[in-house]
From TrEMBL:
Record-level Gene Ontology MF annotations: endonuclease activity; hydrolase activity; nucleic acid binding; RNA-directed DNA polymerase activity
Organism: Paramuricea clavata (Red gorgonian)
Keyword Magnesium: no
Cited SUPFAM superfamilies: DNA/RNA polymerases
Upper taxonomic lineage: Eukaryota, Metazoa, Cnidaria, Anthozoa, Octocorallia
Name of the protein described by the UniProt record: Uncharacterized protein
Amino acid sequence: MSNTAIIREHHPMPIADELIHKLNGAKVFSKLDLRHGYHQILLAPESRYITTFRTHKGLHRYVRLNYGTSAASEVFQYAISQAIAGIDGVVNISDDILIFGKSQLDHDTALKTVFERLRQVGLTLNKSKCAYNKGTLEFFGMIFSADGVSPDPKKIEAIVNAPRPTNVSGVRSLLGMTNYCSKFIANYASITTPLRQLTKKNAKFQWLPVHENAWKTPTKALTSAPVMPYFDTTKCTELIVDASPTGLGAILQQHTPGNEDHKVLAYASRALSPVEQRYSQTEREALAIVWAMERFHIYTYGTEFVLYTDHKPLELICNNPKSKPPARIERWFLRLHKYRFRVQYSPGKDNPSDYMSRHPLNTSATHRQGELAEEYISFIAQHTTPKSISLEEIKQQTNEDATLQIALKYIQNGKWHEACNLTDPNINNQELSILYSIRTELTASKDNDLLLKSTRIVVPTSLRKQAIDLAHEGHQGLTKTKQLLREKIWYPSIDSMVKKIIDACIPCQSTIPAHPPVPLKMSKMPPAPWHTVHIDFLGPLPTGELILVAIDAYSRYPEVEIVHSTSAA
């Protein structure tokens, strides 16, 4: 119960991949292991009572950080990282500290400084687990040397000696062991596809030759895995991406200027979610670009690089600042403004990531981030404001709109359930109910003065008629007016309000030609059932799906099917 009383401090725990890029040029390595781990950190006297526990000999409490505390790993990581902060050639993951240097002098200087820091803060080492002055060193399951990084032979041996799986749990355990080393195996996702199929829900466990091959192939690949070189900022960086109907693939590689001998730094692939699989090919290829850059962010951020894609339209979209891509792609590409890259077209037959994307690693895809970046919100605010209505005016009226203010408040504190208890007559409960139903699509600006629905501004009540009047200024009709408004703004019941205003527009009504109703023509009775069939689509529904309806003209018997797309594919 003590964990519920702790205000948790969040300090990110680094992984080995985040530290590898710092080791370029390192030739001498040492590793330090802290003795007794968490117990080296003293608890503040006022916090010790939280750790009180009861035994047959009475109540006791911890004086030092214990392993049962929920925030122990983060507190410990932060304490160690602070102790070695500012020392070049030193990194740590939990209680393991890695010291490295490009020369013996650099290494020894860093090692001496670490010893002095540890002495100052009172941390002690486990002598038996420390290693000094090594040209090759094992650290967190990987082997580091002057040439680069490779998988730990002990891990490879454990995989080689692992028994053949006899159930789903064994398959998952095997995949977990090999996945840690997947960055060293080209086409890892393709190789292990049969094994992943066995872990699916309701899949029958039957070990076949194809599974035997998928079990042994990664082992063979690991025993001959190449040494991956470290990332070098002086070399030319290339990111090769591709997308298929089912997955994404990427390869990060480098080469020396003037030398076309490319060295692969890492492989990556992932599966597409069911929703992503329904994207157009251009959208999937664009998603591959965004995913690959963020997947290798630690290498691509701050580095000028070339990105290769086998989708020609994206070369034109990315390299032309005046291009107008579809809204979804434009939103994705807003996340890429912080990168410096040039897109170059490479035919699929020359694209090594093409195979990886068609055989992706079936990891769970992440959906909807917790919040939008402030740059994204600022872009929307500046580019979706209708003419003749200033952004400041929208902010001012939003501040005076009671319903939107309540919505902004609930977005901040997440207490949408309180909406049912409101009795304020200034609040439009019907409109608030609609906002509640789409609350996952709503976002507040940084200063909490604008409400956004996806990429559109939610217009306060006082400005809605003015916005419609501006969009309908040319009397272009109902459909065009709606289209203009939907590009920039949104609010509950916008369609019905537009229709009501246009129906009352005298110039529009006076120019509409009179079309006398045409009487319905009687169709002939078919000679037999299913001789004539009427087919049409209903939708799209709010979920994006459509309903295919087929009716037999003879019996009026209907057949209904839910479909995800009208495409023949």
